[in-house]
Design a protein that fits this description.
13% strand, alpha/beta, four-stranded parallel beta sheet, 191 residues
């Protein structure tokens, strides 16, 4: 699990175009702002739960759909005062639809000084299956499409590729596929 945290927070730090927020970089295992001060993530998960399968034999119920919170401008505007009241400087979003428009919400979050940590996987067919792991060009294309859709925003802090894939010892067979996903997404980000 240490690898996934390191990847989410460090390997995919993103900076694009004109930045309203201070650029955050990594040195070793720590994050820093442009002025050299340490950056500490004070965040929350920001995702309404979609429908969850109730007959999952693994005992780890999986969602069968999802709600993209960053495409809902009204929801973002409703929630932003509460995020600010909490002192949040980052949110983690588990699933987005890269084909939708996220401009309003991402701008509102940026204007409020809130970074986004974004999972690239999607429920059902858009993630590495822990029961039968594989890393395919279809998954890479999906992940790259999300990176491309969000690369224009100044407040994307990191991308995550391996959320809750390894949840039990028998599922460690998935680890090489997660590492391959991290390797390929990293290569794309730095190309």
């Amino acid at each position: 699990m240490k690898f996934f945290t390191a990847f989410a927070a460090a390997a995919a730090l993103v900076s694009t175009g004109v930045s309203a927020l201070p650029k955050v970089t990594r040195a070793g295992r720590y994050l820093y702002q442009e002025d050299g001060t340490r950056f500490y993530i004070k965040g929350v998960a920001y995702q309404e739960q979609g429908t969850v399968s109730t007959n999952d034999p693994s005992g780890f119920p999986e969602p069968t759909d999802y709600i993209d919170p960053l495409s809902d401008a009204n929801g973002c505007n409703r929630d932003l005062p509460y995020l600010k009241q909490l002192g949040v400087n980052a949110i983690r979003v588990y699933s987005v639809n890269s084909a939708l428009n996220h401009d309003s919400c991402m701008k509102a979050l940026s204007d409020a000084g809130i970074y986004v940590i974004l999972d690239l996987a999607l429920p059902v067919n858009g993630s590495i299956d822990r029961a039968s792991p594989a890393w395919t060009t279809n998954l890479l294309d999906l992940y790259v499409g999300t990176v491309d859709a969000f690369s224009k925003y100044d407040n994307v802090l990191a991308y995550n590729v391996g959320n809750e894939v390894v949840t039990a010892p028998a599922e460690t067979i998935s680890a090489p596929f997660i590492k391959a996903a991290a390797r390929d997404v990293k290569a794309y980000l730095y190309a």
